[in-house]
Design goal:
about 100 residues; mainly beta; 4-stranded antiparallel sheet; 1 helix; about 10% helix; about 45% strand; extended
Length: about 100
Amino acid sequence: MPEHRFEVGIVVARRKLNGPWAEYAWLPELVLPAVPAAAPWTPLTEDGEEELYYAGDFEISLRPSATGHYRDNLTSGARHSGLLCNLSGAANTRSRL
């Protein structure tokens, strides 16, 4: 059975930290059901403590052999995308979402 592939958009949050080792944390925020017309790393919102960016697009590949894992993820109550991705517009940047 073939894989099912589709593209999504990724939104990340840049949050200020109050620690000695890092000034900001980059965290996954949203997975959009389609790729927007925005360019990668377009700022979306800013409130002083947190900024949201459209980070880029990502192709998701669903494999029939992983159906049980998808089911477990959806019924766990704590959904995780569990993706290791390379976002377009961010060469050599890998992010775990």
